[in-house]
Amino acid sequence: MSTRTPVIGVLALQGDVREHLGALAAADAEARTVRRPDELAEVDGLVVPGGESTTMSKLAALFGMLEPLRARVRDGMPVYGTCAGMIMLAEKILDPRSGQETIGGIDMIVRRNAFGRQNESFEAAVEVDGVDGGPVEGVFIRAPWVESVGAEVKVLASYGGHVVAVRQGNALATSFHPELTGDHRLHRLFTEMVRDGRASQSR
Q1: Which one of 8, 130, 160, 187 is CB 3.0 to 4.6 Å from 27, fit for a cystine?
Q2: Is position 177 annotated as part of the catalytic site?
């Protein structure tokens, strides 16, 4: 099995890219920005960051990234979406903007801006299944929540009675932003998912 450091991209079309790059580096991954299909082909896993999901969807289409992203996720590439990234990984959005598309990968229905507007942003301690060491400090900024999940989806965390973290196979998503807190445990979890995914492909 290869001991090569996993190469994890951050979709750098819009959103908090720099913070994810730093968190991934702290989690012992080689972090790169990804804007084009050829850059996507060179990474072992991908983070879809927070930002504005409608803008991200339009830019992904403009840059010719939607279909390559969907294909890589279908083929099992590990992917982690935070906030707007969670929306991008949903199979269905309850209240999409006109023309808004997703990558898919997690059998869930999400509600955009479910926790309120920008000025209603907040931080909260969230217990995440599979993350040791106590609660994760979650930063919720115009955050979505998960309305419902399919049978293959594992709920990892809830807050205020709403699902805020899920995993389905190699796809992970959180409503909140762990990259803004200095707590890199979720990025370490994702880095291990990428290592495991790469190991299984090399067998």
Answers
A1: 187
A2: yes
179 catalytically annotated: yes
110 Cα distance to chain centroid: 13
What whole-number percentage of the chain has pLDDT above 70?
96
Structure-token pair, residue 139:
């930063």
Average pLDDT over residues 135-141: 95
Please tell me which residue in 179, 184, 187, 192 is annotated as part of the active site. Answer: 179
C-alpha to C-alpha distance for 191 and 203, rounded to whole angstroms: 19
DSSP string, 69-94: HHHHHHTT--EEEETHHHHHHEEEES
Q: Is 20 a catalytic residue?
A: no
| Secondary structure element (H or E) that encloses residue 32, with its range | strand 30-34
* Per annotation, catalytic residue among 20, 83, 184, 187: 83
Q: How much is the average pLDDT of 93-120?
A: 89
- Supply 163's token pair: 């699902």
What pLDDT, on a 0 to 100 scale, did the predictor assign at position 95? 79
Closest Cα partner for 19 from 186, 195, 142, 193? 186
- pLDDT tops 60 at residue 183: yes
Check: pTM over 0.85? Answer yes or no: yes
